[in-house]
Task: structure prediction
Amino acid sequence: MLRPLLSALLISSLSAAEKPNIVVILCDDLGYGDLACYGHPVIQTPHLDRMAKEGIRFTSMYSAAPVCSPSRVGLMTGRSPNRAGVYDWIPPATKKTRRPDAREQVHLTDGETTIPKLLKKAGYATCLSGKWHCNARFNDPAQAQPNDTGFDHWFATQNNASPSHENPRNFVRNGKQVGPLKGYSCQLATDEAIRWMKNKGTPGTEQPPFFLYLAFHEPHEPVASPPELVKKYRASARNENEAQYFANVENVDLAVGRVLKELKETKRDQNTLVIFTSDNGPETLDRYKGAARSYGRPDPLRGMKLWTTEAGFRVVGIMRWPDRIAKSQESDAPVSSLDFLPTFCSLAGVTPPPALALDGTNISGGLESLDFPRKKPLIWIYYNALNEHCVAMRTKKWKVLAKLDGGKPKKFSNVHSNNSAAVKSWKLTDLEIYDIAKEVSEKTNLAATDKNLRKEMRALLEKQYRELVNDSKVWKLLSK
Result:
């Protein structure tokens, strides 16, 4: 019989051994339809399929943004990334860089409240292994680094593995360049994570609970995969590049299998919550020069990465926790990576600062009942969207899209002192409303036919939109 979830008050009195370990495994640009358990007809993902059978498979899991950096910042903070001033992907910068849009300043500041910071207060050991992408000046004291945001140990890159997933040479471990490595990025990040899990704590003493954030670069470009896996897919893929992509996703599955095996062999899997998800939807094939192997599937969703339609940020989501979560469950309730921070805090017995405006919801109480009520709608404002509607909201069964000033404003990647006044003046226009529970493909726009629904959704979106815009960080342009 499953143990009931305890309240945060009771959990706080538990010993370190009784507090759950937490592992978040994040993919990069994985398509909603890229796993076998989400309907892919070719790619083999037996470890993730088994993980889904041993826990909950979410069909309405959402990331915090339709692009990498803000999605990661949202996951770390439990808040819309706009509040932290991360509106788009973060390009690397040097001390001499001065951009007209202030993007060289963009980073997750050390003043932000994060998951690892809060869990450390509850006695957790914390580790990041893989892709960081939360600052412009990586491994530079001018901006906060992973250790400044709460990680005891970190092994990471600023953005993508370089020159590709194969034999990367741009990893940094706790502030020191690692140099050329041999192997594939997801496996190397997993190697580091497993070593850390084995070595943390003092021998002969009670081991502290741990939080592991394992952030794979795969299957983001530049894609490179083990030849033996590529060979498996040549007959079923349309071309060599697609075979490379299929093999890339299977390599991720193999890495996840290694993590689960380590937890089982060390007898920690029963009280470890493992979450597998993605930072956003799949990249569009050949959208840029280096995207020739971007064969991710959004099916059955509309759009791709960088869109505010469902495929931009509805992602795979699997949760496994044998002590608390029953096997073979499925939920279509909307949940989000924004929910991780309040949920983990509840499970660890630590309370976020009362004044902190969280956009996520504590979903710990629904891990057995599959009842995940949301008091606050999910909202996204992505000013650089590839589609015309830069604003999106999910509330209950409704998905709402809106343009800004009729789509007249030019797309941009940052809010700064020269454009913030204009940003706050824009009005929501051209609403589209979909019954997303009935029609995930977003085809039937109900805004044109249901006036009462349009009025209700407009009022709700307007309230959420204004609150977020008014609380969004504005970067100050620096003089040259």
The chain is about 25% helix and 15% strand. The chain has two domains: 18-369, 378-470. Residues 179 and 307 are 36 Å apart (CA to CA).
